[in-house]
Amino acid sequence: MGTLRRFEDIPGFDITTDVLIAGFGGAGACAAIEARQAGAEVLVLEWSSGGGGSTALSACEMYLGGSGGTKLQRDLGITDTTENFLAYLNACFGDNGDAERMRAYAEGAAEHFDWVESLGVTYNRSLFEGRDVVALTDDSLMFTGNERAWPFNTLAAPVPRGHLAGGAGHDGGKVVFAAIEKKAREVGAEVRVDARLIGLVQDRDGRVRGGVARIDNKEVLIGARRGVILTCGGFIMNEQMARQHIPKLVEIGRPHGNPGDKGDGILLGVAAGGNAINMGEAFCDIAHYPPSHLTYNIFLNDKAQRFINEDVYIGRLGIYATYQLSEQIYMFLDNKHFGRPDYVENTEIVAVGETVEEVERDAGLPEGTLQETVAFYNRHAANKEDPLFHKAPQWLEPLVEPPFALVSYRLSEIKPHIFTLGGLDTRPTGEVLTPAREPIPGLYAAGRTAAGIPRSSRGYGSGMSVGDATYFGRLAGRQAAKAPAR
Per-residue confidence at 1, pLDDT binned at 50, 70, 90? Predict the structure, then answer.
């Protein structure tokens, strides 16, 4: 992968189109729609036997807001200004985020909801106010990130932004992608499955003029008069790349994505002179809820010390757990708040006792550490305070009802889900950039092939990837379609 052919060295193309798209997931399909509607001829290559990618595998709680609120938010009486949405995104990813990209998304996400709904996706006008990863109800709006947790709730007004297809539950991605795929085919995009882009064709001036595909086990040269869009997904299924860039997470976690997340688009873009950025960042989760009442309990490292407010999203908890000196993570709980997480099946009770001291001793923790941690937490929780990590008052109750238990969330045992958040550096409109941030003519990228809006598990929320992929896929399609034909 990463093959590069010089345009001047090939005798001609076997197939020619205006816009060539590699990957028929959410980003690629949306790019195809926009490029076709702008008048360009479009050919989409999909390496598997059907489209969908990671979008179709997700629950697709598309993360949207701004502009006063999406139509769904406004219909429920919820206001979300563009500046408030942008403030939240900056709180999530400001250290390594792309300011121009976040601004574009905050300004365009509400219109993007209208666009998705216009495809025939049904969104019920109801809000799920509880705490869950996916609302298994008919509600279509929910909180899916850290909006209500510290420090985010001090930097932006908490607003629910997870837009979930009505009644779809965990199958929201299938519902949304089916509508996108139908539209792409209706507008005339040609889709070839079992076809993998394995190289790019670039002229001596650096312009990408087409690609080399493997179709029916033969190499096929495809010319692209206006441009090539790489929407091949991330690289979590490429073991060599994953071990190079996120070695610690690979050792403890399980890859989460579609089989096509081999890094094809990233490697092709780099071969053409593009710059891969944010490659050491990845999503990593500990799905400690539902049930929501587990949020009352506390998470500890191997020194019996808390390290985070437990009302955060699963991705923030997961990545902060990996920052601890040991992979041994515990949940301490009392009888009133006892339970097992719905999405983590292999947690084990390591100690039970009528007193905290007994649990501490049976677990082999340093003498006094657990007792001091629990006593400090309980003293302040009784007053609805958490001076160390500022867990929201609604989740603060002293853990005082025996018996007490310590449950292991050892990372290598629970195997958190991981997927990559690095990719090609691009403009919001998709142009792939060199290390000097100069655009490579004729080359675009979107979805997880590009470094998108979500660039750290610390601020990740469900629906951010699919929102980013579909929205910026559309922008890349439009931009490629209006490029001068060569």
Answer: low
